[in-house]
Amino acid sequence: MDHSAAQLQRLAIAPEQLQDHQIHLTSDQQHYLCDVLRLGHGDRFIAMNGQGQLWVAELQPDARFARRLKALGEQTELAMPMMLLAAPPKGNHFDQVVRSVTELGVSYIVPLISQRTLLKPSSNRIQRWQRIATEAAEQSHRQIIPKVLDPASFEKTVMQDDQGDWQRYICTVEPSAPNFLHCLSQALDQESQSGVAVMVGPEGGWTETETQQAQTAGYQAVSLGQRTLRAVTANYMAVSIAIAQIELHTAYPGGKVCTKKSP
């Protein structure tokens, strides 16, 4: 992507908004572009469909429309998907979790309802989290907008076997659990994976039964370190470890990976 295009504001659009070379803007998008950003006829922005495609677009005299000018080619996504399955903490703390893990690169966010989960998300809250993910994807120059899935019970989730040959982990405070960084690094070194899924528990942690259920279902219990983390912090820690390891082990051709030179 050329430097001038990199400076343009990004706007997520639904696939049905694009018809031939014309983008039909919603009233909210018109307000954002024209009233908030102060763009007008002839000004350009980047339209992204959240599925990997981006275009330079130009506002038309009628602000309800923008014209698609050219496609952009760039690669900012991980080489494999990463799923965060997290028990939302009470209050609005999960808003920032959604925002931050979207910036880091997750593909899916699953709100888990465990025995100690205090927050039971409503459909309105799920929609809010999806909007936050969309805004964070625009800001962080993502090509894909992560999907915030409907809340799922812990038991139902671990019993589903729809993640194929993904590497699956459950973060625990168990002193005997191996370190997540070490386990994932070894797994990515040895095998070709389809993705990485990480479970992070609520304040108060998982129950012993939940940890056993997850392990029986194929999740490996891992530790995030010797310190006890708040639930919000644990989400950031787990996702950061996973994405750093994925990027290190699956660099795209031409991608830059720092390695220590042999003496």
TrEMBL record:
GO MF, any single term:
rRNA (uridine-N3-)-methyltransferase activity
Signal peptide interval: none
Q: EC class of this enzyme?
A: transferase
Q: Name one GO biological process term.
A: rRNA base methylation
UniProt KW keywords: Cytoplasm, Methyltransferase, rRNA processing, S-adenosyl-L-methionine, Transferase
Annotated ranges, domain Ribosomal RNA small subunit methyltransferase E methyltransferase: 78-241
- Pfam families given for it? Methyltrans_RNA, PUA_4
Q: Please state the Enzyme Commission number of this protein.
A: 2.1.1.193
Domain called Ribosomal RNA small subunit methyltransferase E PUA-like: residue spans: 25-60
Q: Enumerate the PANTHER family for this protein.
A: 16S RRNA (URACIL(1498)-N(3))-METHYLTRANSFERASE (PTHR30027:SF3), RIBOSOMAL RNA SMALL SUBUNIT METHYLTRANSFERASE E (PTHR30027)
> What's this protein's name?
Ribosomal RNA small subunit methyltransferase E
Q: What is the lineage of its organism?
A: Bacteria, Bacillati, Cyanobacteriota, Cyanophyceae, Acaryochloridales
